[in-house]
């Protein structure tokens, strides 16, 4: 960890925010002994902010529970906005507090009473994460800059370039609808609506008119009557509700595509302004980091737009409203399928993390596809032509673990007749996938930490370490935080691995994926069995969608295999489902997670009503936004059992 040691040599400035005198003092002694400069001890958030303004600290230790009206979590939110790293100190590790605290993105947690070594290791990790964060932000910016330049220089059509841009942005700034629109020249936008992981539909003004049921002149009017965006801004929660009320245009887009947050960057090109608007169906899709990244790209985007605009003028006959396959390349996803929003997010994360050397921690229940995710990351990385070595940490006998992972020299122990290369060395240049990392023995965890930190291993019986270049991907179906709390997993290792977490959702939370997974497994098994692909009856599909899938995708795979062996003719009529009691050990949210049209309609009306604070009729009311008479809305609400609460 050379980087951290050098940084420590520069005497990092640390602020302690802790109202317990003895604990604050102990911490100060530990830090000063380790050559950190403690700039002060604040007893409250107000005091802390004064210290922060006067002497910008490099890192802050924050007690979660502080005297006064504001807690350590309130301070953490402010530190996050100021890009100052912080570590929480807490005696209380209740899950709800931990969840709240985690949302503020701390660099670490220390549970009181703390030991000196816990403090120092957590600090090292914190500085590593801080530097790593800055590094990866710069990497993202560089990749985007270069790629936008590359798109600008290509002699491609306007829509093709936009699709490339959408694909590029999606990895760094997620969106469901991206719109590029000149501000002064009437309403002639080009929008891209995400259909699934790789497909976008081009939406122009005619299409918006068609989908929203308004004519073009009405839309022009809405557009010209809506406030213009002067500055780059993120709109979510309250600010989204306000702009929703004030801007007919935002209401139109939100109602047409089910949008709940957005971010806009006005790109200036001389007198002209061109808005880049990213819309999402998630209410918390965008943050200030996204905005900063986007703002830094303004000049590149201006150049791109002026190039594209010129191309567009020369090509009046562009084809719009066409579903375009954005990525003709093979996607590298190790034959993973899924088109639910949740799996599309997983694919986005994979694509984003694959090119770097960042460690990845994949979490999810057994059989959800964690190993597939690891394979995909490897296949999409520059290491793809080097080995991917899979190690099942739960299956290694304790006494053999070290030799198996790190190798041994000849004669290192009784029975070591020959020198043996360990799994890590075998993966040099490639990736090590540590499956079931939660089951790794404690003494091996220490050695793994060393591989991660110092990038070297030592074979048993050898006194000289071997330098290694491996990327670590780990997976677990256990809750590692619980394992840490129970003393079975090292906190420092957890933080080292948790740099880029990906959670693979259980199948019961993405039942929309069942038809594509079924089709996928049918194709595979038909090939191996040498038979024609059978059809699946509606009844069988309904059975599968209603089942809880405690064994996730692996269980679905087995069920399809069994059903194909027992099928009647060329049709799978019934599915033989294992006799698991429903809800076994798992929380069950709904009988069917795929919603009916009525349920969707009810959710959407409820959402609009909430946005309009319960106002049904008149200007700015839900009926106006939904573009239906108020009487129709009232009868729909009655039919769908919607009770309006004007205080919402
Ligand atoms: N999205 C997917 N598309 C296609 N096949 C999948 C998908 N997800 C999982 N599978 C298949 O389901 C089976 C289980 O997947 P995998 O082994 O990756 O799960 P896992 O989460 O690593 O399981 P475990 O926790 O038991 O190690 C495999 O045969 C895999 O090919």
Automatic annotation (TrEMBL):
Pfam families (alphabetical): AAA_lid_14, Response_reg, Sigma54_activat
Domain Response regulatory residues, every copy: 13-127
One biological process term in Gene Ontology: phosphorelay signal transduction system
Residue(s) carrying 4-aspartylphosphate: 63
InterPro entries: AAA+_ATPase, AAA_lid_NorR, CheY-like_superfamily, Homeodomain-like_sf, P-loop_NTPase, Sig_transdc_resp-reg_receiver, Sigma_54_int, Sigma_54_int_dom_ATP-bd_1
Magnesium keyword on record: no
Database matches in PROSITE patterns: RESPONSE_REGULATORY, SIGMA54_INTERACT_1, SIGMA54_INTERACT_2, SIGMA54_INTERACT_3, SIGMA54_INTERACT_4
Coiled coil: 287-314
Identification of the protein by name: Formate hydrogenlyase transcriptional activator
The organism's place on the tree of life at top rank: Bacteria
GO molecular function terms attached to this record: ATP binding; DNA binding; lyase activity
Residue intervals of the Sigma-54 factor interaction domain: 336-565
Organism: Chryseobacterium wanjuense
Gene3D superfamilies to which the protein is assigned, alphabetical: 1.10.8.60, 3.40.50.2300, Homeodomain-like (1.10.10.60), P-loop containing nucleotide triphosphate hydrolases (3.40.50.300)
Organism classification: Bacteria, Pseudomonadati, Bacteroidota, Flavobacteriia, Flavobacteriales
Keywords from the named record: ATP-binding, Coiled coil, DNA-binding, Lyase, Nucleotide-binding, Phosphoprotein, Transcription, Transcription regulation
Keyword Electron transport found: no
